[in-house]
Amino acid sequence: MQLTISTTHHPASDLGYLLHKHPDRVQEFTQSFGVATVFYPEAHDDRCTVTLVLEIDPVRLARSRGRSTPDFSLAQYVNDRSYAASSLLAVAMADVFSTARSGRCASRQELADSAIPLRITIPVLPCRGGPQVAHRLFEPLGFEVAAEPIELDGNFPEWGDSRYVHLALTSTVRLADALNQLYVLLPVLDEAKHYWQGPAEVDKLLRSGEGWLTTHPEMDLITRRYLGRHRALTRVALARLAELGDEVEEAVDPAADEEMLQPEAARLPLNVQRHDAVLRVLLELEARSVIDLGCGPGHFLDRLVKTPSFTRIAGSDVSARALQVAARRLHLEEISERQSDRVTLFQGALTYQDDRFAGYDAAVLMEVIEHIDPMRLEALEHVVFGSAKPGSVVVTTPNSEYNVTYENLTGMRHPDHRFEWGREEFAAWSGRVAATYGYAVERRGIGDADEVLGAPTQLAVFTREP
């Protein structure tokens, strides 16, 4: 694999001081899995570029696996975990540029503490979920992202794109910050590591994520992917990050768990597809005022706020801490008074009548009803459809029939789900609610539909009849 870092800071050749690698030398660094070579294709006052090339030795990689490794006897024959090249690159980069990652430079400390223009390029990088995942991870950090998909085979264009991208990142950022972000996010993009993970991985994540991870809007996704879906490690990491960010584990969007169940070929996150689908419905309805009931940490509210046609937006959740996270995500303390009047957040329970729920063109119940005890569901129906009476209600919920396609899933998709319905059950419920409260209902699917099992998510659009 290859990584290049360029700068136009003047004098640009000071990049050599920051990286502690002399521009006039070609240096090799032996790794347990191969050799990392550092050289400078260009080193001038106006522009300087350093290149890190990692050559992986598969024989050395296999031999380096210790006999204490849980799967030592068979792993080198049947498990491709060892060949997660992006993880190998991250480890090599962390070793070769360890002093630069720490932000230390005795001869140029002021420069090491400063943001400088950087362009980082990786010609071939695994990116599960497609280029949009790279945008989600790097853009909130201030990078301008160019992630170009690479064809699976140029001779057979009908085969489509591979899971690899050509990644280029441009920003004015402190070099140490950029290196630490790359160290975390390269294996996150690949969603794989070349070694078995233990509790020490949580400490690595927190050290490298210091100063940026707790405020990243995709913190939960990054944590889960970095820790390779190890639920126990993920819960520990999220709890510690919650303490650092004044958040709580309950404020993390549970949709990330569901995303991990998606097959790689369809890894456009299902929660992103839901957000897209519901936003399209609201625009079709020409709604001007929208309330997100059960808004959680505000992922969908962020989409609403960024859509100018919505002139009045509200988010409600039973968790006050989730609302605190939503307020930070929306930067409510920083926006103008006019904008703050447009957005309202308040605590409320959907099973108790609340006048604040009323007066909106549309209400959204996205992945909410399945978290309600069945015996309390009628109370929610009365509060939303009978009391608040929005012009339209958009409801999404999992399709339980689709669950058989999820590898390693036992039970329901999330431990807090009280039930999950198949299509007939959802049709019966939505039909009954519509007839009871004077709404017409249209049902759709969200996500890649199976011919027999249907789509992974069910959507119902209720429109109040005159």
What features would you describe in this structure?
The chain has 466 residues and is of the alpha/beta class. It folds into three domains: 2-196, c-terminal autoproteolytic domain of nucleoporin nup98, CATH 3.30.1610; 197-245; 266-464, Vaccinia Virus protein VP39 (Rossmann fold, 3-Layer(aba) Sandwich). The protein is 36% helix and 23% strand. It has 18 helices and 14 strands. It has a seven-stranded antiparallel sheet with strand order 2-3-4-1-5-7-6. Strands 10-9-8-11-12-14-13 form a seven-stranded mixed sheet, with helices on both faces. β8 (289-293), α14 (299-305) and β9 form a beta-alpha-beta unit. α4 (85-96) runs antiparallel to α8 (175-190), α8 crosses α10 (219-226) and α9 runs parallel beside α11 (231-245). It is elongated. The termini are far apart. Belongs to the methyltransferase superfamily. HEN1 family. This is Small RNA 2'-O-methyltransferase. InterPro entries: 3'-RNA_MeTfrase_Hen1_bac (IPR024026), Hen1 (IPR026610), Hen1_N (IPR024740), Hen1_N_sf (IPR038546), SAM-dependent_MTases_sf (IPR029063). GO terms for molecular function: metal ion binding; RNA binding; small RNA 2'-O-methyltransferase activity. It catalyses: small RNA 3'-end nucleotide + S-adenosyl-L-methionine = small RNA 3'-end 2'-O-methylnucleotide + S-adenosyl-L-homocysteine + H(+).
